């Protein structure tokens, strides 16, 4: 199995729920790395052919152990999914269990088991989730960097608003100019076609008259 152990704990180390796919010392190793977690964010550790992925969010720590061959993508998506599920269903209940070891084992332990089995059976879904999350994080990073650059230059929001309005005005003027240019070109094209048609007709009349006056009996 790619995922072998998962748990959720409070930041100071009390494990609220856990699930192990098979027997081992994963819980003991997990506690060691849970104790190292001090702030928000995600970390990954390699231990004896396994990776331990740890996510800290809102004072709770979510951990999953996986075979090292599984890589980091699926475990990373797994802890994100578990954190979302926990926050939506159990966060309020867990707030009153700060000192109770295994306080959510009967309820959330089943959820950990179900989610681990699903990730093992459908790993491609978690790969896609991780890929999308990575792109979202990259976009957020770029936006944050751009905002920081703007603030570093000391530009005020009013100036940015004025620049935006000017860009919108220039864009609108460009569109109007383009439409007017297309209309002028269309009119010139029509005029050219009319001139060519008249020239052809005039040439035909001249040829006709030349033939007639040269004795062609064209009027008989």
UniProtKB/TrEMBL annotation:
Keywords, in A-Z order: Membrane, Protein transport, Transmembrane, Transmembrane helix, Transport
Main localization, broad class: membrane
Organism: Chlamydomonas reinhardtii
Protein name per the record: Uncharacterized protein
Keyword Calcium: no
Pfam families hit by this protein: Longin, Synaptobrevin
Keyword Transport belongs to the record: yes
One GO process term, biological-process aspect: vesicle-mediated transport
Entry-linked InterPro entries: Longin-like_dom_sf, Longin_dom, Synaptobrevin-like, Synaptobrevin-like_transport, V_SNARE_CC
Family the UniProt entry places it in: Belongs to the synaptobrevin family.
A GO CC term attached to the entry: endomembrane system
Biological role: Involved in the targeting and/or fusion of transport vesicles to their target membrane.
Record's subcellular location: Endomembrane system
